[in-house]
Amino acid sequence: GLQRTEMHQVTRRLRFYETALFVPSAGAAAVGLLGTGLVVQRVRRRRAIRRRFNPYIAGAPVLEDEMFFGREKLTQRLLNVLHHNSLMITGERRIGKTTFLYHLKKVLTADEGSDYRFFPVFVDLQGVPEHGFFHALMSDVVEALGLTPATRESLRFLPQPDSYDGRDFSHDLQRVIEELKVRTDKKVKLALLIDEVDVLNEYSERINQRLRSIFMKTFSENLVAVMSGVGVKRTWNSEVSPWYNFFDEIEIAGFTREEAEALIKRPVAGVFRYQPEAVERILALSQLKPYLLQKFCVHAVNRMLEDGRTTVRSTDVEAARHAVMFEGALGPAEAAEAPTHVSA
After folding, report:
1. DSSP secondary structure of 105-172
2. Which fold has domain 71-251?
3. What does the pLDDT read at residue 343?
4. How many CB atoms lie under 10 A from the CB of residue 277?
5. Which residues lie below 8 Å from residue 311, measured CB to CB, with a gap of 6+?
6. What is the pLDDT of residue 28?
7. What does the alpha-carbon distance between residue 237 and residue 215 come to, in Å, rounded to a whole number?
8. CA dist., res. 278 & res. 177, Å (int)
9. Closest to 291 in 3D by CA, of 124, 100, 125, 103
10. Rounded mean pLDDT of the chain?
11. Which residues are CB-contacts of 104 (< 8 A; sequence separation ≥ 6)?
């Protein structure tokens, strides 16, 4: 048979990444992006210096989520047992108990992972006299829960605390819980987050026993408490303490090294930097206590800003040490004995 052969020329246009121009072009683009990123970072740092950006908080409770560090295990532990048990959080002053209660309030409000619907109410007992105790509790409950007018009218609670006692509180609490049951199909848990519970030590045993009775008997199905303080009084005139077998006690301590480093570095990441020596010195001087960590960072960053720098040095921390001592947050002996290195 006959055979026929034909020649065809095929032209394929190279894709850009196959051309000789791709590598230098890609390199130029990468350098351009890097340069843009450096320029943006430089502008951000200059703006931060001009505005004296200092995100650390020392003295007041930490309310912003982005400034709350650590306590994940403690939070989970409380969530695991709070459905059936009241809890007492103890710890030295300024260790973060109040901040944790505020954080717990947010967690309980958003919790959707159980058969219970929590209605958390934060209560601060500082400065509350014994005769106004139950009125103060109900005042915070009314303010936090946004009760309907019908429920408000059914309460014995009035703005003035005159003669409002434990019986009135129990009466009103029943009306409050009835409304809360209408708001959800889940089991209702009104959670009183009571701060500065040490104040109860100054109250009479009668008031303490009445509060225990409200939690343990009258409203045990729908009421729990998370109390925080240095400690509660264990010895009373009667043979049995009002708080015997009432709550599980959990001690809140300082941070782990990892949690402390996160508190130091993350709030200023991308804006300021810390020399490694500065971080080590803050860890050592603060003894990993949240309040002192914040204190040292506040003063060290302020000193850095005064010099128009963007890197915290160990000299800034040493200057902060004297400021913290002057404010009474760190005793001279305590500061002098602080180790120079904190092991991992």
Report:
1. HHHHHH--SSSEEEEEEEEE-TT--GGGHHHHHHHHHHHHHT--HHHHHH----SS-TT--HHHHHHH
2. Rossmann fold (3.40.50)
3. 46
4. 14
5. 272, 273, 274, 275, 304
6. 58
7. 21
8. 52
9. 100
10. 84
11. 75, 78, 120, 193, 226
Instruction: Return the structure tokens found at 47.
Output: 């703006």
Q: In angstroms, rounded to a whole number, what is the distance separating the alpha carbons of residues 163 and 156?
A: 11
Mean pLDDT to the nearest integer, 192-215? 91
Three-state SS at 21: coil
pLDDT in tens, 20-63: 665 665 565 555 555 555 455 565 566 666 688 999 988 788 88
Report the C-alpha gap between 71 and 104 in whole angstroms.
10
Task: Report whether 173 contacts 223 (CB < 8 A).
Answer: yes
Q: Which residues pair with 262 in a beta bridge?
A: none
Nearest to 120 by CA among 145, 99, 139: 145
Options 1.10.8.60, 3.40.50.720, 3.40.50.300, 3.40.47.10; CATH for 256-336 is 1.10.8.60
Q: Nearest Cα to 92, choosing from 198, 191, 201?
A: 198
The type of residue at 271 is: V
Q: What residues pair up with 188 in beta bridges, in sequence order? A: 117
Domain ranges of the chain: 23-52, 71-251, 256-336
The answer, yes or no, to whether residue 337 has pLDDT greater than 60, is no
What mean pLDDT comes out for the span 1-29?
62
**In the β-sheet with 223-229, what is the strand arrangement from edge to edge?**
116-124, 187-195, 223-229, 86-90, 247-251
In the predicted model, is pLDDT for residue 223 greater than 90? yes
Q: What pLDDT, on a 0 to 100 scale, did the predictor assign at position 325? A: 84
pLDDT at 192: 96
What are residue 118's DSSP bridge partners?
189
Task: Show Cβ contacts of residue 117 under 8 Å, excluding neighbours closer than 6 positions.
Answer: 180, 183, 184, 186, 187, 188, 189
* pTM (predicted TM-score): 0.78
Three-state DSSP state, 268? helix
